């Protein structure tokens, strides 16, 4: 893990931002609770002292006996009473206010220190009080220390600090964990990408079971890598094939030309040159076929597509091939349903079926029957080229459409090994499927892909 | 014939020019597109041999320009492009034939001759073709040799028609594949040879001399 990379990562930043928001929210929430809780308690105390003050004021109206009054509202810890009769004489004086406070009042510690005489019993705290003048004169004040409030304040403040601290810590840890997790996963993708760029095409992105967006992305990238691997493999294969398949005829060409150079007999030299020319023609044909396949696979042929009569084309092809096949001891049987039309590139479709027939001729012994059939209706037709020859071993079947693949590698047959590769390319360009039917000889079926 | 060769590859140009001059043609040569266009527009040539890719102005543009000026001089494209659509593009632009490099000189010579002989005005399509003692009625679709009727299969008829259209000229195997069967590739099966052999045996039945002559290494010819 690159340290700077981690701290700068989007995931970490996002985690930190949400952490800050979370902590801020916690603080606001705690402040609210603090505010509500303290004011509620202040109100309660305030109500309680007012009630006592009123009680004392009523009692003072009836009787201004200190003992009596003190019985009605007895002395209590944290409770301060001050009662003065109409003559200004203090009857009860837990402490003495310097001024007559009227109504409810919350007095801070400083106000208490300066506002009251005989604050000897006063702790270092404020007072919530209520003062009123009596109806017949006199003055009553009841106050209570706000120690409860301060205690609550302190408790809330402590709880708030702890909660905020925890929130900060938790959000940082959570953010760090999420960021680290994401960072590691992205790092994983980066590592794989670097390995792939380094040439290891088999590498795949890790996909976890959670199927989140990174997994979906990884899965998609893996599909892309799979495609790339196939394409690269195909390119490598083709390059190897070209190198291999072209060396052989080139070697023969060179040998023939060398022999022609040293031949004494002009006739023999001429024959060797002719043979060398044939060799070079074969190679040019192979290059031509490869270029053509590449071009067909490259796409963009559709602009030349026309509707034409496939039945007529196949019937004509049968007539074209029949004599030459008869001369080679093979029979061509055509069974073609008329008026089946297709949409495609005439020249390429013609080459497709010619290649299929050529293939059936080249790879079979004399006496073979080659059948060309076409049947169906509308866009649901099926064309078949079948031969009664030896067929192809199941193990070779998946490869017969590969470039340069020859099932009968041991046997010497003509052909470049590109005929069926071109057939497949043309069929795919037309969105037709080509399949090997399970019959005695080789039977290839072409039909519109479903 | 007077022939213009426009080819920027010097080696190919010399190979073509030398060969055509040896056959007795008058040959002008240039390697630049605009010059080729000016020459073709101002001099009466019998055949133009144009490379598809020329500096200055490419072969397609030259032909389009000439055709728009109602110049109908037959043109043969030489090209290294053997794309599926390249031939179609060339013919659509107004080219008359198309030859992919590398080619055998005999192939080029045969095609140039065929183009040079092609009648400029095809206002009236012939209803009858003849060469020597061979006669072909295109309407009745009958063939006679020295008044003896000969029955032909449809493809044999097409093949003979093509040969008669080019009577007195060598017709190559590739020209037959393209012209008679529409094959722009070389099939592994020897289609041309077999059909020629069948046609020949029908035409020659009862005659001493073969109607179709094989020119070794070049093609076939029906003497006119």
TrEMBL record, chain B:
One of its GO terms (molecular function) is transcription cis-regulatory region binding. It holds the Pfam family Response_reg. The modification 4-aspartylphosphate is found at residue 51. It comes from the Bacteria. Residues 126-224 bind DNA. GO terms for cellular component: cytosol; protein-DNA complex. Residues 2-116 form the Response regulatory domain. The keyword Electron transport does not apply. GO terms for biological process: regulation of DNA-templated transcription. InterPro entries: CheY-like_superfamily, OmpR/PhoB-type_DNA-bd, Sig_transdc_resp-reg_C-effctor, Sig_transdc_resp-reg_receiver, WalR-like, WH-like_DNA-bd_sf. Gene3D superfamilies: 3.40.50.2300, 6.10.250.690, Winged helix-like DNA-binding domain superfamily/Winged helix DNA-binding domain. Keywords: DNA-binding, Phosphoprotein, Transcription, Transcription regulation, Two-component regulatory system. Residues 126-224 form the OmpR/PhoB-type domain. This is DNA-binding response regulator.
